[in-house]
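#onboarding

Welcome to the new folks! Below is a worked example of what a typical request in this channel looks like: someone posts a single protein sequence, and someone else replies with the predicted structure as tokens. Don't worry about understanding the tokens yet, we'll cover that in week two.

Example request:
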Amino acid sequence: MSELIDIILPADQLEGTSATLSKWLVAVGAQVKDGDPIIELETDKVSMEICAPSDGVLSEVLAQEGQNVEVDAVLGRMSKGAGGAQTAAVESAAPMPVQTSAPAQSDSTAQDDSARHLIGPAVRRLLKEHGLDINLISGTGRRGRVTRDDVRAYIANPQPRIQAAPVASPSPYAAMERAARPLNGKLIPHSNMRKSIANHMVESLLHTSPHVTSVFEMNMSNIIEHRRWHKKEFEALGVKLTFTAYFLAAMAQAVKKVPQTNARFHADALEIFEDVNIGVGTALGDAGLVVPVVNRVQEMNLFEIAKALNAQTDKARDGKLTPADMKNGTITISNHGVSGSLFAAPIIINQPQVAILGVGKLEKRVVVEEVAGVDTMVIKPMCYVSLSIDHRALDAHQTNLFLSEFVEVIENWGQ
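Example response:
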């Protein structure tokens, strides 16, 4: 009898939360190779894959699609190295394929790349070893996944991936034409990630933390000038200098002033952390929101912060984040101003943290300053900055003290 191997969700893959089994990528009886993706999981933070622990045949499925699974749970079993009679029986029962190549897509059919962001450990390892950009590699796996064989084929014959042709812009009269028709709509099912985000937000706002938000106004003149002088210097070293890097540096300074903001609330105590590990809210378009963490910001200078921030946000947008990239956050920032928002309140706290900073849109506004003893209207680049807090852990005094320090660091940068 073949040796049976348990397929489990490793304990180090999740950060104190459960995952939903989204898809079994192979059927019972299917032959798989060591490292092939066999399960797709989704949490409120990331989509991920579980890969085959060895060569063999999937012999048993214990967890069903849509079911919540916990760490170390046995999701299924496979027969190690099996291939003979069992595999032959499955192959003989399956219809023989007629085509030897992928069918050509019609001009009206868009390429399905909805799972390209899911990268298995074996694929990630090959990409890193060979310094490859996954966006150049065509995926032949289910829903556009890039498999280990795809990477090996690209290494042997590097042919860039052919991008789907852009969809033509609609007619300017399309909106009027639609308005004249009966109201037609379609239901788009929520992804498991979207469901998990929704549950997490409701749990945080309504059932866990009483949210309170304080809003300050901030003059951005000094960091605009500092960035203007140092942007090219950073670029020459391969690092993009963004305003968010300054915000992370100022947050670390404000935490020194108010350490209670860098904490987790427990029923019997407030756990305050020495390391300032800042989660950076990163939108993925319609796919949802992830929060990669920049660790130990209090130990870094501006260049180091910008470099670490670039690495995490690039991984987020390229779909290369791992659960480890989102672990151990102690406080969070949402730079919602990049999408045009002046301010947002409250911004939902990323449990079990106790505070989240929000930075709004930068815009020139008229403010009143005293010049030579006379109140004078001047134009300044301003933005609103807010701190939403868990009122069980913090009060207005600590909230406003944190924001005062944060604003002072930004407004006096380089002085």
